[in-house]
Amino acid sequence: MKEFILKLGREAGEIALSYLGKAKVSDKGPKDVVTEADIAVEKFIINTIKEKFPDHNFVAEESTNENHESKFRWHIDPIDGTHNYAHGDPNFVVSIALEENGKLKYACINFPCLKEIYYAKKGHGAELNGEKVFVSKISSPENAMIQLGISPLKESIDDSLKIFRFFTLKYLKARDYGFTAGQLALLASGKADGLLKFSQHPWDVAAGILLVEEAGGKVTDLHGNKIKLGDKSARHNLVASNGLLHNQLLSELDNDQLRNIDKNKNWY
Fold first, then answer.
1. In what helix (H) or strand (E) does residue 218 lie, and over which residues does it extend?
2. Separation CA 206–CA 229 (nearest Å)
3. Are residues 203 and 156 in the same domain?
4. Is 266 domain-assigned?
5. What is the pTM of this model?
6. By CB atoms within 10 Å of each CB, which of 13, 188, 214, 231 scores lowest?
7. Is 184 helix (H, G, I), strand (E, B) or coil?
8. For residues 123-137, average pLDDT
């Protein structure tokens, strides 16, 4: 499976690169776009998996759910960071994860432009280009880099900017790269120390959750509970960290300045 999923992630990344800078872009919804590359990459991933595992289930961004009552379910984001990708920005990834009986078992996140590919298997740690990676050991807010998300939507942008301001002032730095799976991979390899994201789809977070956990970090919902991934209609709020900052991040969300923010509405 390791060989299969890494080869799949690499080849999907090569397809994405072949369209970079020239992919046709279409509107998918308010402040949301899809490119022809998203469609092509997802089709390649699903068809390749089906050739080997025809009875597996799928939750993918650009397709409908496929449920064959299998104990295996794939979560696929063909290009996470589509807005970045559509503008030729190299900050995008291909994200693939496999669940068995509702538990994440394998994960792959490929940064095609950086030639960096992350891999994790449950109970076996996380890797970057074949080398083990681990979360950071930073435990103080003044030294911590926190990944966030700034909503582009009118109904959510004020709340997201309040959160961004709060963490920018209290922590070393807050930033948003615009691709959740990629940001989770950065956290897993110690390039960030915490992450807060709201209203995320399963394909946004599945591979990254396993990577962070296998690198020694922690991922929960806003109440400290383990996240159970849903189907295509599900949305997930998550707090991810190196573990050392986790309780503090959870408590920050109960701060007077942030307590009344609606974190369950659409942040896309």
1. strand 218-220
2. 7
3. yes
4. no
5. 0.96
6. 231
7. helix
8. 98
